Amino acid sequence: MTAWARLYEAAPKQLREALQAEQAARARDEHGVGDLNTSPFSAPLRRLLTDGGLVDSQRGFGLQASWPVGPVFPRIAIDHCLHDPALVTAARALGPALGSDHLAVRVDLAWPPGQAP
């Protein structure tokens, strides 16, 4: 279990309240990108998506396993781009290894047709 997952497990009420406050204060074009060190199947990530009102950009693009780089099997999808449901994931793909132990992740977010601010 990752450090943030342990924190979420240890203090779900405080984190849920913080997420809800953040969601209430944020602009429509909110997104977050990062190495969350958790699979898309983990319970803490599922709760983060639900409690934060976020969408995982990987949805609809298949399992894109980005770690580790090299001839290792199996790879794991632990790099995520979470975004506001007002946006759509127009494209999502794995890129090349750029010196990290993770493959690059490219995500194109867009406003749905006719809904740009």
How are the strands of the largest sheet arranged? 1-3-2
Task: Please give the largest β-sheet.
Answer: 3 strands, antiparallel
In CATH, the homologous superfamily goes by the name Endonuclease/exonuclease/phosphatase
Taking Cα atoms only, what radius of gyration do you get, to the nearest Å? 15 Å
How many distinct helices? 3
CATH C-level class is Alpha Beta
Describe it.
With 117 residues, the chain is an alpha+beta fold. It has a single domain (3-110), classed as Endonuclease/exonuclease/phosphatase (Deoxyribonuclease I, Chain A, 4-Layer Sandwich), CATH 3.60.10.10. The chain has 3 helices and 5 strands; from the N terminus they run H-H-E-H-E-E-E-E. It has helices spanning 3-10, 12-25, 43-52, and strands at residues 31-35, 55-56, 79-83, 88-97, 103-110. The strands form 2 sheets. The chain has a 3-stranded antiparallel beta sheet, with no helix packed on it. Strands 4-5 form a two-stranded antiparallel ribbon. Strand 4 (88-97) and strand 5 (103-110) form a beta hairpin. The longest helix has 14 residues, at 12-25. The protein is globular. InterPro entries: Endo/exonu/phosph_ase_sf, Endo/exonuclease/phosphatase. This is Endonuclease/exonuclease/phosphatase domain-containing protein. Residues 33-102 form the Endonuclease/exonuclease/phosphatase domain. GO terms for molecular function: catalytic activity.
